[in-house]
């Protein structure tokens, strides 16, 4: 293990992965580099796990599920997850620095990626403790006479959790903690660009909690085939995945032969319908901020702004001013709210999509390139494109950068049709001076979640997920907990 550190706050995470209760390197000793996106420098290494490592981890999780009483001992699970919440809290400044090092997330906005998920561990421990696992549904008539029926909510078994790089610590927690509390065993496969948010989680579990060997495993790897091996393994009962729609499709296909339960949280291309009676001064600076915080690397970002033609220029001006004044820079400097993109590859993709937008007739209002004062680090200027054709590539593809596209519309019906013109259906937003009118529009948006007048739909107590090609199933809320359980109906004498 290395734990490098320099003056800017950069901190390398644990290089090892956790398999069957042991922090370890892959047998060959191979590692891969982890780059700090703000300096473009190698910040450290992570072990490069293989398909064989994944197979051992799945074997350990299978044994822990089948041969220990983890799945049946609710009190013990509550004890372990309460310990985990305290342990993560003790490590939180360390975790924050590791997160900023591998993601480049600004320190000023890191709370939602550190404090929030730690609080969620406590939430799930309490939710799981109070959940009604055995439900008496009463006496039912049957041809053989009356029968009482009970539903026993049981863990599914071995859960494979595969996470992306954009909010890695949060998603590692969101995918695994409810699964563990519900009595499953877990193998986590973090994203290649963010191995340490996973390896540090594994280290803390094994060093600071009583979670038994095999119950929680983390396989770190630079190869997609290792995630693919997890999703295809017949010993895995469920895959919980957050990432791109393309990978989601591959996971769904590889789970088909074993009819694996699959929970998918995928990409998005959300629209924000700004109605003609909206408070533009409240709605549009907030929309610009949401586009730039996290460098636009957010699945739920309403990146397509739909403005009424009657107030189009006014709306563009407000967005332009907000984006041009947005604090972009070194993530370690307090006050900066937008850091770099996570990698050179992502930056190229974002800049390429901006170019494709301009080529297809969009008008570049501001941004569009690399900030002149930030030559080092994978930064992109906050970018605003107007007159965007709803069928163009930049309107249809997820950008994952600090970019807003603006399209004018004439009537509410037009706006709804443009918003729904997408393979995605993750979230959306409506702004209006009339909440009833906004509700009417929100109900017609084909998405899993909608925000009205900036009031967020997102949080641990409410179900979250996508429609169409944005996913299957829900996280958060009681619905999110139930995803990790199966109901067994038991008939018994009345
Ligand atoms: P990605 O799909 O490229 O990778 C996600 C994970 O899948 C990584 O761990 C990767 O190693 C693994 N993987 C890749 N190929 C695989 C395969 N064939 N089988 C199994 N696993 C495989 O996504 P990304 O680029 O890391 O993340 C960005 C994407 O995540 C965006 O599309 C974004 O919208 C989405 N996302 C969605 C949500 C949500 O809640 N809906 C949240 C965050 C991010």
UniProtKB/TrEMBL annotation:
Q: Which residues form a coiled coil?
A: none
Show the active-site residues: 265
Q: Which Pfam families match?
A: Aldedh
Q: Keyword set for this entry?
A: Oxidoreductase
Q: Which residues form the Aldehyde dehydrogenase domain?
A: 28-490
Task: Identify a single GO molecular function assigned to this protein.
Answer: oxidoreductase activity, acting on the aldehyde or oxo group of donors, NAD or NADP as acceptor
Against InterPro entries, the record matches this protein to:
Ald_DH/histidinol_DH, Ald_DH_C, Ald_DH_CS_GLU, Ald_DH_N, Aldehyde_DH_dom
Sequence similarity: Belongs to the aldehyde dehydrogenase family.
Q: What is this protein called?
A: Aldehyde dehydrogenase family protein
| Organism listed in the record | Mycolicibacterium hodleri
């Amino acid at each position: 293990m290395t734990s490098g550190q320099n003056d800017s706050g950069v901190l390398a995470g644990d290089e090892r992965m956790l398999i069957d209760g042991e922090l370890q390197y892959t047998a060959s000793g191979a590692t891969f580099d982890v780059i700090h996106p703000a300096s473009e420098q190698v910040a450290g290494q992570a072990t490069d796990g293989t398909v064989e490592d994944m197979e051992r981890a799945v074997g350990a999780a299978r044994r822990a599920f089948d041969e220990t009483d983890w799945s049946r001992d609710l009190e013990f699970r509550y004890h372990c997850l309460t310990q985990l919440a305290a342990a993560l809290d003790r490590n939180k400044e360390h975790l924050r620095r590791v997160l900023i090092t591998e993601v480049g997330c600004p320190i000023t906005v890191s709370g939602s990626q550190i404090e929030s998920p730690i609080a969620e561990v406590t939430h799930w421990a309490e939710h799981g403790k109070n959940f009604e696992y055995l439900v008496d549904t009463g006496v039912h008539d049957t041809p053989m006479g009356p029968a009482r029926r009970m539903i026993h909510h049981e863990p599914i078994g071995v859960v494979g959790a595969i996470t992306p790089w954009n909010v890695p610590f949060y998603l590692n927690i969101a995918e695994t903690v409810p699964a563990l509390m519900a009595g499953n065993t877990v193998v986590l496969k973090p994203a290649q660009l963010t191995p340490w948010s996973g390896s540090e989680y594994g280290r803390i579990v094994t060093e600071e909690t009583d979670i038994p060997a095999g119950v929680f495993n983390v396989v770190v790897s630079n190869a997609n085939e290792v995630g693919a091996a997890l999703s295809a393994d017949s010993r895995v009962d469920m895959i919980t995945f957050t990432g791109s729609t393309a990978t989601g499709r591959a996971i769904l296909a590889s789970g088909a032969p074993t009819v694996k339960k699959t929970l998918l949280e995928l990409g998005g291309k959300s629209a924000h319908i700004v109605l003609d009676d909206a408070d533009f001064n409240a709605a549009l600076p907030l929309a610009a901020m949401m586009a730039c915080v996290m460098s636009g690397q957010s699945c739920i970002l309403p990146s397509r702004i739909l403005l009424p033609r009657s107030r189009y220029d006014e709306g563009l001006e407000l967005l332009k001013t907000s984006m041009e004044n947005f604090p972009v820079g070194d993530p370690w400097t307090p006050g900066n709210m937008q850091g770099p993109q996570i990698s050179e590859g992502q930056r190229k993709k974002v800049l390429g999509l901006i170019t494709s937008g301009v080529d297809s007739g969009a008008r570049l209002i501001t941004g569009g390139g690399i900030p002149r004062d930030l030559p080092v680090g994978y930064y992109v200027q906050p970018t605003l494109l107007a007159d965007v054709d709803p069928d163009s590539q930049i309107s249809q593809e997820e950008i994952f950068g600090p970019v807003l596209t603006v399209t004018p519309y004439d009537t509410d019906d037009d706006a709804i049709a443009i918003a729904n013109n997408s393979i995605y259906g993750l979230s959306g937003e409506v702004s209006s001076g009339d909440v009833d009118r906004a509700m009417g529009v929100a109900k017609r948006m084909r998405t899993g979640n909608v925000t009205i007048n900036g009031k967020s739909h997102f949080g641990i107590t409410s179900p979250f997920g996508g429609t169409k090609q944005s996913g299957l199933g829900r996280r958060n809320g009681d619905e999110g907990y139930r995803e990790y359980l199966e109901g067994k109906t038991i008939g018994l004498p009345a």
